[in-house]
Amino acid sequence: MTASADRLLVATLRLDRGRLCALGVTALVATAAALLLPAALAAAVDAAVAGRPALPAVLWLLAVGAAEIAADIAGSLLTVRLISSATAWLRRALAGRLFALGARSPLAEGDAISRLSGDCTGAGAIGTLVVQLVAIVLISTGAIALLGLLDWRLAVVFLVSVPFALLIARAHLRRTADDVLTYQRVSGELAARMVDAVAGLRTIAASGIADREATRVLRPLPRLNRAGRGMWRTQARMVWRAALLFPAVELAVLVAAGFGVQAGRLSIGDVLAALGYVALGMRLVSQIPLLTAVSKARSCAERLTEVLDLPVPEPGKLGLLPGDGTLVVRHARVAGALENIDLTVVGGTFAAVVGRSGSGKSALAGVLGGLVTPDEGSVLLDGRPLDRLRPEELRAVVGYAFERPALLGATVADAVGYGSWAGDSAVRAACRTAQVDDVVVRLPHGYHTPLAETPLSGGEAQRLGLARAIVHNPRVLIFDDATASLDTITEAAVEQAMATALPGRTRIVVTHRASTAARADLVVWLEDGRIRATAPHAALWREPGYRAVFTEDSITKDSVIKDSVAADSVAAGSVAADSAVKDSVTKDSA
Q1: 258-to-46, 151, 208 alpha-carbon distances in Å
Q2: 354 contacts 549 by C-beta, under 8 angstroms
Q3: What would the pLDDT profile of 320-358 be if each residue is shown by its tens digit?
Q4: Pairing mode, strands 530-535 and 376-381
Q5: How confident is the model at residue 87 (pLDDT cuts 50, 70, 90)?
Q6: Which class is 9-308 in CATH?
Q7: Edge to edge, what strands does the sheet with 384-385 contain?
Q8: CATH topology of domain 327-589
């Protein structure tokens, strides 16, 4: 287990010392009451058997029992609060690191969700687990000591069982640790695969590969099964061994107590007390599953520290220089996506990024927009390194729109103005530019319609995403396939509206359409993570390889009619218009 994970658990223990101390006090009260209860019961029984007044002994017995119950109730309430506060703190820390990492996070969405939910809860329980373990140790040792006060012979008989109990605990902890960690890791992997599959559900259904995708998603199940079975086998082995040990010890102590009664050393009440102390002393064995919970908490902490220990580049304090949105990339490299990228996009240029699937288009868009920091090289915006800008500065000068935008906020207006101080007039102006105002005003409450009650097609959601990027009034607009669900006519109208409403802005558009590339001032043609050429569309169209980019893409992307386009009722018109534009571009290039 890594030292970093243990340090995180220690920090979690120190987080809410007040509640932790209060929980410790209630545990001590419950422990003391549990240890006093057998003696109180013995006194009441002996008084009744001897014919003495038993009321004081019975009242004392009731008082001890009530104290134990009250302490247990208070401890349960404190346990819930302590776990909740620790879990919330861990989730804030993990979410903060994930947001800081941004696109550089190595975690898939499902794995991140698994760590935020299950692992934070598991690690957050460490405080209550420690208190429970300490209480159990105190109860067991106290029970042995009180058993010795009754009769040292009884304590000796009981202590013979201690080595066996320690062997059971040691074997359980050793065998459980690896299985618990494996189970956590595979659960995260399975969650990641399921999230990916749900996100692409329509594509999977349209492609007719549901069975193959199900096989891919469920591939980790055998490993999960082996880890789970290993945990249960270890648990079962511990349970039956403890189940055999407990009655054996109880029987041995009962026999020894019987000899004590016969010799006159012990009373009937003392025998009952001895059996109670045996039960308390054996809690150390019966509560061995707590060791599984501790092992799980440490495994959860290790998975959390795998993320929390990832380095996050610290933004500088250089500030942003005035400029027109000129982007300069020098010798940029992103492992597995881009190699040796050198590119200059002059301020105010409309640049289209094209290439086959997997050529690195989205990675380049992320680099240009500051979402991805290259492993090597530099990216400058108007003379300042993008990775040295503060987040609020970057947000103010770069607007981003995605193919599948995540619309966040309570209402449509909130979703468009998300992350900005834009008022209603600015939000509506951005929606007009994105050609979606006519859709929003027809909603039951217009811009104040709750998002949950707003049915949106893919194209409408994309246009709201475009409006969200526009509302910041940025110097640079980056659209990562953000118009893929729009028909060609609507896309052209959006571009014209942006050119009018935001003149002189630098626009970077990742696209699969020849018609879009034809309208751009400059085309960046990517191939296998490298820039093959930069030139206007008409010049590049003479290259067979360049034309093949759109031909192959039309086969893979346009063969399945998107549900969102159908919902916009423009599918047929889109195909015809796109064909007409492509034919026109071909003739002009020839």
Answers
A1: 16, 12, 76
A2: yes
A3: 667 888 999 999 999 888 999 999 999 999 999 999 888
A4: unpaired
A5: very high
A6: mainly alpha
A7: 338-345, 327-334, 376-381, 384-385
A8: Rossmann fold (3.40.50)
